[in-house]
Amino acid sequence: MRIVLQRVSHASVRVGERVKSTIGKGYLILLGIGEDDNEGDVSWLTKKIIGLRVFDDDCGVMNRNIIDEKGDILVVSQFTLMASYKKGNRPSWIHAARHEISKPLYRLFCDELSRLLDKPVDEGEFGADMKVELINDGPVTICMDTKNKE
């Protein structure tokens, strides 16, 4: 699993002309699921996200996590994070999980984040063409990969 996590002051997802989700202060998470990802990857990654201290404390030091901040989370599925780009100029998606693997893991990821956050997590629409809008706060952008935990 790969994510791009962005600390935002606002983020929203549009599907067609319909606004699907909107959040205020928190995280926009773009989630890519690989063919060999599993429930263990979900568990490790969601705990890491919830514990991540990237919000400023009273001294202006990044020392607060999403729970301390009472922030929101918006998760958007993005298979293109699994792109292989070593050969030529056209990315390959061969390492991205098929729908029958990725959709249940996406659902589990969102549900587990919601459980750990103790409130609902907003979502994009799995498999849809989406327009994502955000105001990156900081900017703070962190990439994580469950295959590179060190």
From TrEMBL:
Gene3D superfamilies reported in the protein's UniProt record: D-tyrosyl-tRNA(Tyr) deacylase
The record places the motif (Gly-cisPro motif, important for rejection of L-amino acids) at: 138-139
Provide this UniProt record's keywords sorted from A to Z: Cytoplasm, Hydrolase, RNA-binding, tRNA-binding
Q: Give the reactions, separated by semicolons, that this protein catalyses.
A: glycyl-tRNA(Ala) + H2O = tRNA(Ala) + glycine + H(+); a D-aminoacyl-tRNA + H2O = a tRNA + a D-alpha-amino acid + H(+)
Q: Name one GO molecular function term.
A: Gly-tRNA(Ala) deacylase activity
Summarize the protein's role: An aminoacyl-tRNA editing enzyme that deacylates mischarged D-aminoacyl-tRNAs. Also deacylates mischarged glycyl-tRNA(Ala), protecting cells against glycine mischarging by AlaRS. Acts via tRNA-based rather than protein-based catalysis; rejects L-amino acids rather than detecting D-amino acids in the active site. By recycling D-aminoacyl-tRNA to D-amino acids and free tRNA molecules, this enzyme counteracts the toxicity associated with the formation of D-aminoacyl-tRNA entities in vivo and helps enforce protein L-homochirality.
> Domain comment text?
A Gly-cisPro motif from one monomer fits into the active site of the other monomer to allow specific chiral rejection of L-amino acids.
Q: What is this protein called?
A: D-aminoacyl-tRNA deacylase
- Which organism is this protein's natural source? Prevotella micans F0438
Designated gene of the protein: dtd
